[in-house]
Write the structure tokens for this entry.
Amino acid sequence: MWKRHARRLAAVPAAMLAAVLSVTTVLAAATWTVRPGGPVSMKSGNFILTDTATGSALTCPPAALSGALKSGSGLPGTGIGAITAVHSIHCPTPFGPEYTLTARHLPWRLNVLSYSAATGVVTGSLGHLRIAFLGPGCTAVIDGTSGTAGDGTVEVRYTNGTGRLRLLSTGGNLHFYHVRGCAGLFRSGDPATISTTLTLSPGQAITSP
């Protein structure tokens, strides 16, 4: 009798493990469809760069970007698209001199994670980021785990109905590194966020499955 109970108890974890493995397989097998794909141009809204520890924020005017998305169906979500060129972003200040943001470590890679058919919204991340920051008496690097890693990420949300890719100010891993000067507005090691909305042309339909 005790042996029968033991076999039943042993069977429960086995069944649970099989269920977990089954779910994992389904998640890993998720595929994507992109139409039309190919080269895209992007027009941004204002870029907002923030040191979330000090609260210092810099608002920069719209900029032009370009990139490409894969085309077709059965696509993996990782590396489904990329930003390949970013014009330098010049940010005026009330004091006169400009600050400049310059994209480094291109291409920045677009990864998609989830899709809502009800809203047409795709969530994911933009990775491989590094940004050089230069201003009067102030220089810095914005990156992920170190100032030379080139592994900065921001979370993104793409809406099929509008063709807009939004860089979110939450969920990323950006930090300031190698800060020199800056009068305490930005400090090495402080968390950073960069947010804007990119309008893609032509607009893309990104769906799953």
